[in-house]
Write a structure and sequence with these properties.
The chain starts with 13 loop residues before the first helix and ends with a helix. The radius of gyration is 16 Å and the shape is elongated. Helix 3 packs antiparallel against helix 4. With about 90 residues, it is mainly alpha-helical. It is built from four helices and no strands.
Amino acid sequence: PVMHIAHEGFWFGVGPLLSGQPRRVTALARTDAHLARVPVAALRALLAGAPQWWRVIGTSALEYGDITVAAYGDMLIQDTTRRCAAALLRL
């Protein structure tokens, strides 16, 4: 499994919006957190009224890719001290 620690303001859920498929990730809060859920149908309606917001959705998708590649690269580091330091720098 791959893990990433997200910070306040992190938005996830672009996958189902773009693909129509179920979520591929699980979110687990390790501290008190507030979670807001926006149904896909409501989000599609908002985007229909403001098509320029699709750019923000695309940016989120690119951020997911960047996080995934960085986390995978961190896991490839064999030295545990360096791997831990790389993960901390990523966060």
